[in-house]
Amino acid sequence: FSCEWAAARFRFHPPRSPLAYALQAGEGGTRAILAAVQAHIITYLLFTRETECTHLERLCQLGHREQGQALATALAETLWAAGGGGRAVVCLVTAPVTTRPRAGCRASSFTDRIRLFEFSEKAAAQEFISDHINSFKGEGSHGVILFLYSLLFSRTLER
């Protein structure tokens, strides 16, 4: 992955601003993934989330917590759909690897530390993602790459 991909994460505009519902997108290839997730975020905020606000207020009156919940819901919905409605796989980065690679193999500081978490219930996947939302939106988290890996494993390599 390029430096652009490695730096890509799910980052919202400032809370309680006119664009509080919108993800910030950099240049290049990650925009397509961010746009797909953005569509699910807007759908959740406008049609699923229970609130007393009008449609436009629903989008602009988001705080940090609501942004995280919207992102967790969007990621879980997308992974669940990729898994055919029967499973979702979430990839997270674990602690640094302390073992040395085998002869002839090169160590990757990122991909060697990915751990898979499989869920057979959408609600459990969403709760797990919500509990680990900073793994997707935190600075230096490789959030978009983790989501891409999660999509691939949810869909399965065979499919």
Which keywords apply here?
48% helix; 159 residues; K48-linked deubiquitinase activity; EC 3.4.19.12; cysteine-type deubiquitinase activity; MINY3/4; two-stranded antiparallel sheet; ubl conjugation pathway
Classification by helices and strands: mainly alpha
Shape: globular
Query: Percent helix among the residues?
Result: 40-55%
Distance between the termini: 23 Å
Keywords: Hydrolase, Protease, Thiol protease, Ubl conjugation pathway
Protein name: Ubiquitin carboxyl-terminal hydrolase MINDY
Function: Hydrolase that can remove 'Lys-48'-linked conjugated ubiquitin from proteins.
Organism: Agelaius phoeniceus
Secondary-structure blueprint:
Layout: H1 3-7, H2 30-48, H3 55-60, H4 64-82, E1 88-93, E2 114-119, H5 122-131, H6 134-137, H7 143-155
Sum this structure up briefly.
One of its GO terms (molecular function) is K48-linked deubiquitinase activity. With 159 residues, the protein is mostly helical.
Structure, explained:
- The structure is a single chain.
- The chain is mainly alpha-helical.
- Helices cover 48% and strands 8% of the residues.
- The protein has 7 helices and 2 strands, in the order ααααββααα.
- Strands 1-2 form a two-stranded antiparallel sheet.
- Helix 2 packs across helix 4 (64-82), helix 4 (64-82) packs across helix 5 and helix 4 runs parallel beside helix 7.
- The protein starts with a helix and ends with a helix.
- The model has no long low-confidence stretch (mean pLDDT 86).
- Its EC number is 3.4.19.12.
- It holds the Pfam family MINDY-3_4_CD.
